Amino acid sequence: MKLINATLCLSLAAGLMVVAPAAQAQEQLAASMCDYVKADDKNRFRKLLSDNRLRLRNIYDGVLCDGLSLIRFAVKSNAAGAGEFIVKQLPAAQITASGDIAWAESNHAGSALIAVLKARAGGGE
Fold first, then answer.
1. Which end of the chain is more exposed for a tag (fewer CB within 10 A), N or C?
2. Does residue 6 fall inside a structural domain?
3. Are 67 and 26 in contact (CB under 8 A)?
4. For residue 63, which of 3, 18, 52 has the smallest C-alpha distance?
């Protein structure tokens, strides 16, 4: 019985060693995305997605910057270029459902991204 438990522990430990680098790489990608949005560097943001064969709409919900979604972080950082790129990569329904427009209007009323968000969401609100 002890041999089985020891083998199971070793198997789990080996599995964690394989998963840990992958999780670390994902955290590094997310950190790079946040850095590029904060710097309003649309081209490097786009290249990061392209080099890693990622579609923003597939990973958007899993990336937070300072506890904010990428769009909200772009609004907060006054990153109009990167923010517009992000908005254009997402489905209009996702932007409408996220509440980002109302959040931006109440927290950052002067942001240029509000018009971009509204246009992508269908001109409403």
1. N
2. no
3. no
4. 52
